[in-house]
Amino acid sequence: MSGEEFDGGKPVWGADGGFGSSGRELGIVPVNEQTALLSSLPPANDGAGGLTVPAFPLRHFRLMQRLMQKLLLPFLLPLLLALLPSCQSMGTPASATGGHPPLPTVKRVDLKRYSGSWHEVARLPQIYEKGCLQATAEYTLNPDGTLKVVNTCYKKRGRVTSIEGKAEAVPGSGNARLKVSFHGLAALVPVPDEGNYWIIALDPGYQWAMVGTPNRQALWILSRVAALPYPTYQMLKEKARSLGFDTGKLLPEAAAKKRPG
After folding, report:
1. Does the pLDDT value for residue 27 go beyond 50?
2. CA-CA-CA-CA torsion for 232, 249, 88, 172, nearest 10 degrees?
3. Mean pLDDT in the chain?
4. Most buried by CB count within 10 Å: which residue of 52, 91, 104, 219?
5. Cβ(79)–Cβ(189) below 8 Å
6. CA dist., res. 218 & res. 249, Å (int)
7. Residue 181 pairs with which residues in a beta bridge?
8. Is the pLDDT of residue 167 over 60?
9. Sign of the dihedral through C-alpha 233, 238, 240, 245
10. pLDDT digits (tens, 9 = 90+) for 118-143
11. Residues 33, 35: Cα–Cα separation, whole Å
């Protein structure tokens, strides 16, 4: 389920024609304020009766600098934050696991059976899933053996964002370790050679799965339906804890509704 909070690499507009309150919190300047900033720059003649160009005193350079920071920061910050776990996963085996023992995976995964829709039952917090009340992943097997990936995030007030990418198996992993990359700005994030999507538990009937990263910074519990039977969820949570994941931070706990199972 890794990915960014982008819709096709573009920010999602709010109902008011701007980026909404969440966008302002990220530092995005609405168009009308951008225009006001730019229109405050006084013109200066080139002295030959020709083209009139803006004069840029120091204070105006500072205004432009602030404007560019506000426009670019919302795009660059998620990218840089997403880059950190990837960097932690590269290098020597010790650095790849963040000091933890090697992370075991299932022996083999049939990608054709693994394809289809998955619901995210629980996850460790990730910056690119901030604000997601629910999330789904759709995997489609491509003719070349890779998977098309579509991750969708459902937020408050009916907002929906999605991102597309591709997953390819790490050679020799039995398809249990995948290298998942995404389009748009997220394509700039390097993917470690050992993969960033490790399937560490899988139902024999492919009805649930648990995915993590070897540095234990990311974990997803997935199900074909929106909620797992509580005993199954508890079993997976305990397995994750025994492998070194901080299960006390799993979100959202309420997703695994207690019911007979």
Report:
1. no
2. 0
3. 75
4. 219
5. yes
6. 11
7. 166
8. yes
9. positive
10. 999 999 998 888 889 999 999 999 99
11. 5
